[in-house]
Amino acid sequence: MSTKSFPLLATVNDPADLRKMSRAELKTLARELREFVLESVSKTGGHLSSNLGTVELTIALHAVYDTPHDRFVWDVGHQTYPHKILTGRRDRMQGLRQWGGISGFPLRSESEYDAFGTAHSSTSISAALGMAEAFKIKGSEHQAVAIIGDGAMTAGMAFEALNNAGVSDANLLVILNDNDMSISPPVGALNRYLAQLMSGQFYAKARGVGKSVLKQVPPLLELAKRLEQQAKGMVVPATLFENFGFNYIGPIDGHDLDSLIPTLENIRQLKGPQFLHVVTKKGQGYKLAEADPVAYHGPGKFDPAIGLVKPATPPKPTFTQVFGHWLCDMAAQDERLVAITPAMREGSGMVEFEKRFPKRYFDVGIAEQHSVTFAGGLACEGLKPVVAIYSTFLQRGYDQLIHDVALQNLPVVFALDRAGLVGADGATHAGNYDIAFTRAIPNMSVACPADERECRQLLSTAFAQNHPVTVRYPRGSGAGVEPLESLEGLPFGKGELRRQAQPAVAGRPRIAILAFGSLLYPALEVGEAVNATVVNMRWAKPLDTALLQQVAQSHDALVTVEDGCVMGGAGSAVLEALQQLHIDVPVLQLGLPDAFIEHGDPVKLMAMQSLDAAGIERSIRERFAVSEAASGQSAAA
């Protein structure tokens, strides 16, 4: 990307360069930075609306604080593109979220300016408080700042951290980036003045002296507190955070550097926990994103002059869309169905369901733990809850999954979207572990549909059960198998023999591939290439042990294939079952390794893990010494 269009931004190689600029130059820099973000994301894809909304806040923070010695913890972290650009990664934005390129989230191994790795919501205050306490123990004057959005603030973990921080004397600043409300008149000139006043040393000292005097007369101290809260309530939305023990300041315009910089300069001099409320607008500066921040939350490549356009030919239905259609159809048939999402309505394909069944739709906010236990409560009263949740986010509700649902054997369906590698969002969002961590729980069942049709069918099967079931499916489209209109399910806990190998040639092992989920289709390609039997297992728990026994006794070797972690996964379940059946047969387990796999194109990532057809075939030939000639003879026979 040419720096000629961004002459001032081109001079910024690290945040120290910002601290040499005048206020007027910083305003010019903000315009260039916003244009750079827009141009950059339009070429690579990525998160847009949130990043356009944090330009001025990012500039103000780096202009006031001594980074990297002062620490910034960005909650969720998908709003950190301006931060990355200003901290020496401007020229690497062309590789954003691509293999070998920079991450779309803060990553400690990527830069010393990324103080804490984030991507899941509501962790920032806890992490920043830990840093602030560490600074205090070490006698350091460095500062810790948590920047958290209004959505992330709804999670219980954020309030646990606030509760802890409020009784601490550590120097912690929590910035609430409120982008869910428009910038209204109270956030104008008067409020700017009051925010600077409340963040100033005079106000802090006067407040301290007043408290020390009034302590001698407790009734007057209580009266003074109430009067102060009422006075603040005239110009700020709430004083909830004062009750947590923070000094609350704001709200102020998060796009006004003349407001942000003086207020932050004042706050940096204060001691103890501080809370700054800033109001920003998603998509700020790009009218199309301002008008529809959801559509521009995470777009692919597009032309900024035109905006997002619908493809000429409709794409294949995604697994998410298949789930959304099934949810509406099943709800129309069974009035017991209720649907729950932890703040992922669009991502989980539930927009139409909310419109058609608003009384049976529950968006509980970013509260995965609550969503699971809430579903348990609904199930106790005879309803049939369906929790639509990403695989990576169910990790946050693991205790509730065990204690509140499985232990009581409640009939809750968990629709696990984004199972397996997710691509550009990287290791933090990968759904690699759900087979391993769910199949270990008593009463749980785990369904692994191979394609869109089976996804709909297995959702129906899961819904018909009287115990908890997870149905896991990947991001995007699969093999393109058209779902049936009916709501009939498939047999519970049963797989199918999809391909029978031709008679084997002498000296060549008879191989059977046991495929779990969408890797059935590359397995079928390999079956043709090496003349192997291919089994569509469909269930990681319960395993179809009758089918497994039949196949194991009629073949010389087995290969398990899954898009989850090998350790504790479906292949491990097969080994456990074979041991119980007293069958001794060689087993090759193929799946994701014991490593975190970073961001990149999902097709390329799967190939790198040898989980595409070519990789699976190569692994089989190497493990069982299957030659091209032998497999060709078998196929011909």
Automatic annotation (TrEMBL):
<dbReference type="GO" id="GO:0016114">
    <property type="term" value="P:terpenoid biosynthetic process"/>
</dbReference>
<dbReference type="InterPro" id="IPR009014">
    <property type="entry name" value="Transketo_C/PFOR_II"/>
</dbReference>
<dbReference type="InterPro" id="IPR005475">
    <property type="entry name" value="Transketolase-like_Pyr-bd"/>
</dbReference>
<keyword id="KW-0479">Metal-binding</keyword>
<feature type="binding site">
    <location>
        <position position="286"/>
    </location>
    <ligand>
        <name>thiamine diphosphate</name>
    </ligand>
</feature>
<keyword id="KW-0460">Magnesium</keyword>
<feature type="binding site">
    <location>
        <position position="78"/>
    </location>
    <ligand>
        <name>thiamine diphosphate</name>
    </ligand>
</feature>
<dbReference type="Pfam" id="PF02779">
    <property type="entry name" value="Transket_pyr"/>
</dbReference>
<feature type="binding site">
    <location>
        <begin position="119"/>
        <end position="121"/>
    </location>
    <ligand>
        <name>thiamine diphosphate</name>
    </ligand>
</feature>
<dbReference type="GO" id="GO:0009228">
    <property type="term" value="P:thiamine biosynthetic process"/>
</dbReference>
<dbReference type="GO" id="GO:0008661">
    <property type="term" value="F:1-deoxy-D-xylulose-5-phosphate synthase activity"/>
</dbReference>
<feature type="binding site">
    <location>
        <position position="150"/>
    </location>
    <ligand>
        <name>Mg(2+)</name>
    </ligand>
</feature>
<dbReference type="GO" id="GO:0019288">
    <property type="term" value="P:isopentenyl diphosphate biosynthetic process, methylerythritol 4-phosphate pathway"/>
</dbReference>
<feature type="binding site">
    <location>
        <position position="179"/>
    </location>
    <ligand>
        <name>Mg(2+)</name>
    </ligand>
</feature>
<comment type="subunit">
    <text>Homodimer.</text>
</comment>
<dbReference type="InterPro" id="IPR049557">
    <property type="entry name" value="Transketolase_CS"/>
</dbReference>
<dbReference type="Pfam" id="PF02780">
    <property type="entry name" value="Transketolase_C"/>
</dbReference>
<dbReference type="InterPro" id="IPR033248">
    <property type="entry name" value="Transketolase_C"/>
</dbReference>
<feature type="domain" description="Transketolase-like pyrimidine-binding">
    <location>
        <begin position="317"/>
        <end position="481"/>
    </location>
</feature>
<comment type="function">
    <text>Catalyzes the acyloin condensation reaction between C atoms 2 and 3 of pyruvate and glyceraldehyde 3-phosphate to yield 1-deoxy-D-xylulose-5-phosphate (DXP).</text>
</comment>
<dbReference type="GO" id="GO:0030976">
    <property type="term" value="F:thiamine pyrophosphate binding"/>
</dbReference>
<dbReference type="GO" id="GO:0005829">
    <property type="term" value="C:cytosol"/>
</dbReference>
<dbReference type="InterPro" id="IPR005477">
    <property type="entry name" value="Dxylulose-5-P_synthase"/>
</dbReference>
<protein>
    <recommendedName>
        <fullName>1-deoxy-D-xylulose-5-phosphate synthase</fullName>
        <ecNumber>2.2.1.7</ecNumber>
    </recommendedName>
</protein>
<keyword id="KW-0414">Isoprene biosynthesis</keyword>
<comment type="similarity">
    <text>Belongs to the transketolase family. DXPS subfamily.</text>
</comment>
<comment type="pathway">
    <text>Metabolic intermediate biosynthesis; 1-deoxy-D-xylulose 5-phosphate biosynthesis; 1-deoxy-D-xylulose 5-phosphate from D-glyceraldehyde 3-phosphate and pyruvate: step 1/1.</text>
</comment>
<keyword id="KW-0808">Transferase</keyword>
<keyword id="KW-0784">Thiamine biosynthesis</keyword>
<dbReference type="InterPro" id="IPR020826">
    <property type="entry name" value="Transketolase_BS"/>
</dbReference>
<feature type="binding site">
    <location>
        <begin position="151"/>
        <end position="152"/>
    </location>
    <ligand>
        <name>thiamine diphosphate</name>
    </ligand>
</feature>
<dbReference type="Pfam" id="PF13292">
    <property type="entry name" value="DXP_synthase_N"/>
</dbReference>
<dbReference type="InterPro" id="IPR029061">
    <property type="entry name" value="THDP-binding"/>
</dbReference>
<keyword id="KW-0786">Thiamine pyrophosphate</keyword>
<dbReference type="GO" id="GO:0000287">
    <property type="term" value="F:magnesium ion binding"/>
</dbReference>
<feature type="binding site">
    <location>
        <position position="179"/>
    </location>
    <ligand>
        <name>thiamine diphosphate</name>
    </ligand>
</feature>
<feature type="binding site">
    <location>
        <position position="368"/>
    </location>
    <ligand>
        <name>thiamine diphosphate</name>
    </ligand>
</feature>
